[in-house]
Amino acid sequence: MSSLTRAVASSPGEGLHTRAFGTYLIRFTAAVTGGGMGLFEMNLPAGEGPPLHVHEREDEFFRVLSGRFSFRCGKDAVELGEGGCILLPRRVPHAFLALGEGENRLMCMVTPGGFEGFFADVDREQPSTPEAMAALAARYGVAFLPPEKDRQGAA
Predict the structure, then answer these.
(1) pLDDT tens digits, 15-65
(2) What are the pLDDT digits (tens) for 70-90?
(3) Which parts of 1-152 are beta strand (E)?
(4) How far is 124 from 101, CA to CA, in rounded Å?
(5) How far apart are alpha carbons 150 and 125 in whole angstroms?
(6) 3 state DSSP class of 13
(7) Domains of the chain listed by start with CATH number
(8) Is residue 42 within 8 Å of 28, Cβ to Cβ?
């Protein structure tokens, strides 16, 4: 990881637009931030969100930009609306779900950076099987937990 030596800015709507589990706008990549972080926005339809999963490499900070979301992390669960924030630590199983009927937008910062590339890879590679998706996620240090574990809750 290198040091960031200058300001980095992103105008509204500026960044890499991708489609993966909704629409994503990647604002800052690890390459731009010296590896320190990645920053992206996501817009998810109601009822959508990732299954229970674990990140080995990065912590995730979320801020709800619009709509409403439920978050699970370990044994904790919380619902957040516009302006709400949550920090999810690496190596702890977590999931989230868009609840609002209208627009459901999140901003996510990952530290260190790098995971933001996952969404561009999903958009480009279009993995068509759970095995292909799991292999792509593994390249980013992410593991999806089996549905049985999801039903039992994160332990």
Answers:
(1) 888 888 788 999 999 999 999 999 999 999 999 999 999 999 999 999 999
(2) 999 999 999 999 999 999 999
(3) 16-19, 23-28, 38-43, 53-55, 59-66, 68-73, 76-81, 85-88, 94-98, 105-111, 142-144
(4) 29
(5) 26
(6) coil
(7) 16-144 (2.60.120.10)
(8) no
